[in-house]
C-alpha cells in the first residue's frame, strides 16, 4: 500500500479540483452506442439590479439597505439569481450579508467603497469578544453565514480606504498604527460550494478574504492590492476550512499573503485540510505562504506549488504555536525573496521558517511532522530554519533541491531569529546565520541542496548547515561552503 506521504506527493496536485466536486464533476458516458447530442437550454438568469432596489451609486449615499433588499429577494428566488452591481458607479456600503444560491456580481468597473463609520457595520461571529479585532467581532464589509452555492464574481473592485482607519504613521517601524475600529473585508463562515472569482479588493484595513469553517471553495484570479505598510491586512485566510483551491491570484498586502490557520473560536469549526494553493504571485512585508500561527486544530494535506514570492519577511513559513498538529505539507516549485523590515513586522528575513514553539508557558504544543519542500529557490537575508522546542520536536522533514543565496540587502541589525509569538522563548533571539539551521529536530533530510553567499558576508554568517540537538540528520549531495574560510568546514553538528 502506498504511504500517506506518497499519496500526498503524487495526488495532491489534483486535491483542490477533486474536492470541489460540484464544480468539477463529469458524468460517465458509454461510447458503445452513442446517442445524438441533446442541447439543453442554459438556465435563465434572473437579474436583481441593486440600482432598481434603491442604490444611488454616487459614492456618497449609503447603499447597504438597497443591496440587502436585492440580496434577500435573489436568495428567495428559486432559480438562477444574479445580484447585479453595475459598472460606472461607486457604491458606499457598510456590512452586507450575502446568502446562498446567488451570484453577487461586480460588473465591469463597479466599485464598492466601504464606509468609515462604525455604525454602518454589524457585529461578527457569535461569542466573539467585543474587543478582539481579529475575531471578527467588529464585523466585515461582506459577510455570509452558512451560505451554500454562493458566488462572488466580476471584474469590479472593493476599496477598503485603509489609511482612514489608521491613527498615525510610525516612521521608525515603517508601519501605520491602527485606530480602535477597522473591519475585515470578508468574513465568510460555514459556506459550502463557494466561488470567489476575478474580483479585486484593495486597501483592506484588516484581514482580506477570511474563509472560516468553509468546505468546497474555489478562489480564482482574485487580485489583492492592499497597502504594504498597513498591519494585519492578510490576503487570503482559509481558517478551519477544507477542500479549498486558491489559484491564479495576484496578491500584494502588508501581512501574510496566503495563510492557512485554525484560529481559536467559540464554535468548533473543525480542522483545515485538503487545500491547494498554486500559480499565485505574492508581494508582502510578512510571510509569503504560511501556516499558523493560530493552530488550535489539525492542519494537514496542504499543497503549495508554482508560486512566485516577489518580496517577504519569510518566504515559506509554518508556525505551530498551539495544540493542533501540522502534517503532510508539501511546498514545491516556488521562488522567493525575503528580507528584513522594521521591528513591528514579524520575520527577520528567513528564507524558510518552520517552527514549533509554545505560545505561552502553559501551552500544549502539537506535532509538526511530514513536511516536504521540493525545488524551491530564493534569495534571503536569513537562514532556512527548521526548529522545534524541548516540548515539541519537529520530525520527518525533507528539503529536496532547496537552493538559497544569503546576502544582506538592508541596514537592519542582523544575527537574529524571530520566534514570535511566544512567551517562554525569546521573541527575538540572537543567533548566527547559517544557510540551513536545524534545532530540536529528528529525521531531517537535506537532498541536493545548495547554499551560496553574497559578497562580503557579515561576521554573523556562518556554516552551510548548522545542527543543534538533532538526530537522524541526512545530508545528501550538499553544494556550498561556510561563509568564512576561518570556520574551516561547511557543516557544524553539535
Number of domains: 1
Using the CA coordinates, give the radius of gyration.
24 Å
Measured between the Cα atoms of the first and last residue, the distance is: 38 Å
Classify the secondary structure makeup into a structural class: mainly beta
Number of beta strands: 39
Please state the average pLDDT score.
90
Question: What this model shows, in words?
Answer:
- The protein has 494 residues and is mainly beta.
- It has a single domain, classed as Single-stranded right-handed beta-helix, Pectin lyase-like (Pectate Lyase C-like, 3 Solenoid).
- It has 3 helices and 39 strands.
- It has a 35-stranded parallel beta sheet that branches. The chain has a two-stranded antiparallel ribbon with strand order 11-12. Strands 33-34 form a two-stranded antiparallel sheet.
- Strand 11 and strand 12 form a beta hairpin.
